[in-house]
Amino acid sequence: MRVAVITLGCKLNFAESSAIARRFVESGFEEVSPDSAAELYIVNTCTVTEHSDKKCRNLIRKAHKRNPNAVIAVTGCYAELKQAEIEAIEGVSIVLGQSRKGDIYSECMRLLNSRTAEGSLQQSGKDEVFAACSFTERTRAFLKVQDGCNYFCTYCAIPYARGRSRSVPLHILVEQAEEAAGRGVKEIVLTGVNIGDYKGGLLPVLKRLNAVEGIERFRISSIEPNLLTEEMIRWIASGTKFQPHFHIPLQSGCDATLLRMRRRYDTSLFANKIELIRDIMGDLFFGIDVITGFPGENESEFEQTYNFLANKILPAHIHIFPYSRRENTPAYSMPNQVDERVKKERVAKLEELSAALQESYYSRFAGTTQQVLFEGRVKERPSLMGGYTGNYIRVERPYEEEAIGSIKEIVL
What we know:
This protein is an alpha/beta fold. The protein contains 13 helices and 17 strands.
């Protein structure tokens, strides 16, 4: 039988999808691409925005159209929050929310009327954690270290979908990292909902993973600024495998907006943390998350955010999200909702700024020699191969099969 896993949303979802797919492949299924005909479709959903929900629904309908007789199992955050809504979509066989991802294998086998599942995926609930690591790429793996969140920012539905913060036991993380190394993976990206909230502290995890033989690079996918400690920064800078690249959510460069968002820092803390990192680690790559159009964000507040990014933080890249109303979150019913047209205009301004900042960052390394991990062919231009430097500068060169999966010195 053929199984197709359709994944939306964050790298955490991709890691979980990879673990789910492996369980079916190990029991004899053939994994096929999401746009292929299959007897079983697993749709791992996201609910971070209204657009995410709509995309999920469309992909479910397309899967049903490809094979009207297929079993379609829907899981993930959207499935956790809107089970009845998804069950009403034609073709859906079963909805297993985020808290039941560990039941997918056994439930799908039951629906397929096949053999009894043996050794099914780890059972999970909102008080447990489903361990996962992706091995879908030849050179890079995404390792889930943590799930859930205790922060309950006013705009975010993820804590309601994924539950409270839980940590994957360290010995499991080490086992999965060692398995990744055995598969030839050279780089591991640590992922989670709020990985800085790892029980017992994240630094011991980083130190233990750093010792795994065969893995040459580690990255931290995203970490809250208040949880990125000076001790952690100094250790990373001391000659570890962790790369000079941080992805840190800001969300707003205006203190009044941050307060309404119920973030756990202000712009002063954020700016001081960025300055500290640069003092210790130099001109590294910063990716910064920003939400624009949050309720009450007037032109003055938006300008504060823009100027904070353009004149104070100067990141290498800005991940921009127009605010999307999520039911049952405090921000959903806040007054002064921002018009969609205004959000679109602000997104465009931030995208222009992000492009200029990235060009400026890249230009500072022109002519320097950098270590590049080449990952594979460039999808749009297969005559080229692409990869990243340690500080996350994208590099493309003419394709060389022997270079894939290895780190090469390249003059930028």
